[in-house]
Specification:
With 88 residues, the chain is mostly helical. The chain has helices at residues 5-40, 44-63, 69-84. The protein has one domain: Up-down Bundle (Methane Monooxygenase Hydroxylase, Chain G, domain 1), CATH 1.20.58.110.
Length: 88
């Protein structure tokens, strides 16, 4: 463990941020999983509703810098493409 007060503070901050970022990544996985489940059930209405939630969540988390903005754009784009492929 660090001996300087500033190093101790930095360690505490990094632990806190690591936990927050891990929770954010888990949240992304869960919202993407919800969209994929709706797509698997061919439920276009549920998939569209889940896509709105997923888009908002992924974009927000990318804005915080947890994931790269291009990674977020790619996820949203692929989910939207999959939802649009569902026959109404």
């Amino acid at each position: 463990m660090a001996n300087h007060a500033s190093a101790i503070k930095r360690h505490k901050q990094s632990v806190k941020r690591n936990a927050r970022n891990r929770a954010a990544r888990t949240r992304i996985k869960n919202v993407v999983k919800a969209v994929r489940a709706a797509i698997a059930n061919n439920d276009k209405a549920a998939a569209e509703a889940a896509l709105v939630t997923a888009t908002s969540t992924v974009t927000k988390i990318a804005g915080k810098g947890v994931i790269h903005w291009k990674n977020a754009a790619r996820k949203v784009s692929r989910l939207a493409k999959a939802v649009n492929a569902i026959e109404a």
